[in-house]
Amino acid sequence: SVSLKSEIKKLIYTHVGIWLLLLAQMCVGHLKLLPHDQVAMPYQWEYPYLLSILPSLLGLLSFPRNNISYLVLSMISTGLFSVAPLIYGAMEMFPMAQQLYRHGKAYRFIFGFSAVSVMYLVVVVAAQVHGWQLYYSKKLLDSWFTSTQEKKKK
Questions:
Q1: Which residue of 21, 33, 120, 150 is most buried, as measured by CB atoms within 10 A?
Q2: Is 8 in contact with 137 (CB distance < 8 Å)?
């Protein structure tokens, strides 16, 4: 249980890092701190992805007292607020990625790199982080449930 908590915490902190980078891009884009040819405006999927911080917070809240309810809520909301926007984002950006790789034309950039390429990299990394987080959370949930059942039998 302790090692699973440690792994989940690492994944949550990695997720918070990704989340902060997307938040920074949104702030820079909307507040026009840098020109749009340097930092593109966010894609539509990034707005609902901002809600993905909630499952991470629920996950962290579940650890001190091994709260099964918070962990279950964290897992369900990870699917809704983290994985679903990533799937939508991959579909939303696909036409721009096709245009870039077929014709070599990119219209949005992030510090000189094609915005669609950078954001696909973010999607791939975030999907892995959330996938592992769900996997370890399920294993932790099983562990907690088993120990709860053993306590009830005694």
A1: 120
A2: yes
Name the domain count of the chain.
Answer: 1
Task: Tell me how far apart the alpha carbons of residues 74 and 65 are, in angstroms, rounded to a whole number.
Answer: 15
User: Domain for residue 132, yes or no?
Assistant: yes
Q: Which has the closest alpha carbon to 59: 80, 85, 84, 78?
A: 78
Domain assignment present for residue 154? The answer is no
- As a whole number of angstroms, the distance between CA 154 and CA 123 comes to 46
Question: Across the chain, what does the average pLDDT equal?
Answer: 93
Residue with tokens 């990695």: 14
Q: Quick check: 144 and 1 in contact, CB under 8 A?
A: yes
Element (DSSP H or E) covering residue 145: helix 115-153
Which position has the token pair 């949104």? 26
Which domain, by its residues, includes 75? 1-146
Per-residue confidence (pLDDT) for residue 71, from 0 to 100: 96
Residues 55-63: contacts with CB within 8 Å, 24+ apart?
55/81, 55/82, 56/12, 56/15, 56/16, 56/19, 59/8, 59/12, 59/133, 59/137, 60/9, 60/12, 63/5, 63/8, 63/9
Sign (positive or negative) of CA dihedral 79, 82, 88, 94: negative
